[in-house]
């Protein structure tokens, strides 16, 4: 998927774990402490995320990425630019928001069930909030076959119109 502005100020893109990994020194340093398969996923995700950042805000492309509580990434010099990344199976996805916190989730391409779509919306919401799995994603009310909704201060969108694989994003409503 090419970088796509899914709503004003919220951009999404996807890639594959086979994507050449990020060579940013900070990313390589983090990956050095991971198992080989995990480092490959991590570096592919960071490469896709950094490419999307460069598309949305070129000056932020080389910024340091900090990990907050529950692993939520943030740009060290660009706190107003929300970022998030997800990977499952051979797919990675990234999102960037010029409007603040954002979350994204993608599920393995082999699982195209409605439950997988629902999970991506639920997971995207708790990732946008920064609570991650501790935010109890299953408590996010997502109705079967819906495409958009709200949860707390966040709006979520299933990207059924852009992706054959389960992929959703969430962002803080303005």
TrEMBL record:
InterPro entries: 4-PPantetheinyl_Trfase_dom_sf, P-Pant_transferase_sf. It comes from Kibdelosporangium aridum. GO terms for molecular function: holo-[acyl-carrier-protein] synthase activity; magnesium ion binding. Keywords: Transferase. GO terms for cellular component: cytosol. This is 4'-phosphopantetheinyl transferase. SUPFAM superfamilies: 4'-phosphopantetheinyl transferase. GO terms for biological process: lysine biosynthetic process via aminoadipic acid. It comes from the Bacteria.
């Amino acid at each position: 998927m090419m970088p796509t502005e899914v709503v004003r100020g919220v951009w999404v893109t996807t890639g594959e774990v086979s994507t050449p990994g990020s060579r940013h020194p900070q990313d390589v340093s983090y990956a050095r402490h991971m198992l080989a398969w995990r480092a490959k996923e991590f570096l592919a995700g960071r490469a896709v995320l950094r490419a999307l950042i460069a598309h949305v805000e070129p000056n932020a492309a080389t910024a340091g990425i900090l990990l907050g509580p529950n692993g939520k990434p943030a740009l060290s010099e660009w706190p107003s630019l929300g970022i998030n990344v997800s990977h499952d199976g051979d797919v990675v996805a990234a999102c960037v928001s010029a409007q603040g916190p954002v979350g994204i989730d993608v599920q393995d391409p082999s699982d195209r069930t409605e439950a997988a779509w629902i999970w991506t919306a639920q997971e995207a919401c708790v990732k946008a909030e920064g609570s991650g799995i501790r935010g109890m994603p299953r408590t996010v009310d997502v109705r079967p076959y819906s495409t958009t909704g709200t949860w707390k201060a966040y709006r979520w969108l299933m990207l059924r119109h852009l992706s054959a694989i389960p992929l959703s994003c969430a962002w803080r409503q303005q």
